[in-house]
Write a structure and sequence with these properties.
Keywords: Hydrolase
CATH class of the largest domain: Mainly Alpha
GO molecular function: hydrolase activity
Protein name: 3'-5' exoribonuclease
Number of domains: 2
InterPro entries: HD/PDEase_dom (IPR003607), HD_domain (IPR006674), HDIG_dom (IPR006675), YhaM_exoribonuc/phosphodiest (IPR050798)
CATH topology of the largest domain: Hypothetical protein af1432
Distance between the termini: 19 Å
Largest sheet: 5 strands, mixed, barrel
Strand content: 15-25%
CATH architecture of the largest domain: Orthogonal Bundle
GO biological process, one term: rRNA 3'-end processing
Number of helices: 11
Length: 309
């Protein structure tokens, strides 16, 4: 749903991403919100400080809103006159509001299976089959996002990002034929597996306590290590190479990796991950933007505005 300037709206369902109580220049209280409908994210204001609003409306909830869309500094801002929290929303309503990806779940499942089928090493193939058949992975991998805000931050984003990284790695292997294909592809498929625990389900899509304390790199390396331990005679050297790729995929210590890439396969996975994340982040910024010109609002993550295509 796309809202336009001066358009009145009544009882439309939104996901509340953020809400903050503030005070204006006249010392009058109001609420500043970010609400979303699908991928679109709207800056919003409620021009009163009713305590009940702050008690009921919390990040991650769904709500019906009424009001009018206004032009504020070249972007659409929603002036909300009435807001009502939706308790126990139906799955149909959830699906109409939460951000969804660009590939459906059944297609992504087939794509992951197809990628695994290209692996020749029996230990690595067994590992991948076992991991993607784990109950937690089957339940969450195709539903959760790959990020809370910046990239692939939509339902199915984790699987979508993983497939992109794997396909980029395949292309690297075609160009740089000395890359160990099985190791690099397996690491690409497993590099973000820990995000099934790091992020909560939609509509909240926030970092869990476990995710904040341990991070997806540690959680993923632990999951894969445990899966490897259940495969008889899995070669130690192969285990170290795979785990190293997971631990180093952020590329730098200051970006959260406990080690930097020290193998060709690790640097390939890191660069594939970076390419997928940054290109999608630009695309997502464009899709979310509610500005009225041909450029997005200033993006604080990348310290620039992005030209809409």
């Amino acid at each position: 749903m796309q809202l336009n300037i001066n358009q009145k709206f009544e009882n439309i369902a939104v996901a509340v991403r953020q809400i903050t109580k503030k005070v204006d220049q006249n010392n009058k209280g109001y609420y500043h919100l970010q609400v979303s409908i699908g991928l679109k994210s709207y800056d919003s204001k409620i021009w009163n400080d009713d305590e009940k609003i702050g008690e009921e409306i919390v990040p991650g909830c769904l709500a019906y809103i009424s009001g009018i869309a206004k032009n504020f500094k070249g972007s659409i801002q929603l002036h909300i006159s009435n807001i009502q929290r939706i308790f126990n929303p139906s799955q149909e309503l959830l699906n109409s509001v939460i951000p969804t990806g660009f590939v459906n779940e059944s297609d992504m499942i087939k794509e992951i299976e197809k990628l695994i089928s290209t692996i020749k090493n029996p230990y690595i193939k067994t590992l991948l089959e076992n991991v993607f058949n784990l109950p937690d992975v089957k339940k969450h991998f195709y539903k959760k996002a790959a990020g809370a805000e910046i990239h692939h931050a939509y339902q199915g984003g984790l699987a979508h990002h993983t497939i992109e990284v794997a396909k980029i790695v395949q292309n690297y292997c075609n160009i740089f034929t000395y890359i160990k294909y099985d190791v690099a592809l397996a690491a690409a498929l497993l590099h973000d597996i820990g995000k099934i625990y790091e992020l909560s389900p939609f509509p909240e899509n926030k970092y869990t306590t476990k995710g904040r304390l341990l991070g997806h790199i540690t959680l993923g390396a632990d999951l894969v290590s445990r899966a490897i331990s259940e495969i008889k005679d899995f070669p130690n050297e192969l285990k170290y190479e795979l785990i190293h790729c997971i631990l180093s995929h952020h590329g730098m210590l200051e970006m959260g990796s406990p080690v930097v890439p020290m193998t060709i396969e690790a640097i390939a996975v890191h660069n594939a991950d970076k390419a997928s994340a940054e290109i999608n982040a630009f695309h997502l910024a464009i899709e979310r933007d509610t500005g009225l010109d041909s450029w997005t609002e200033y993006n604080p993550t990348y310290k620039r505005s992005i030209k809409k295509t």
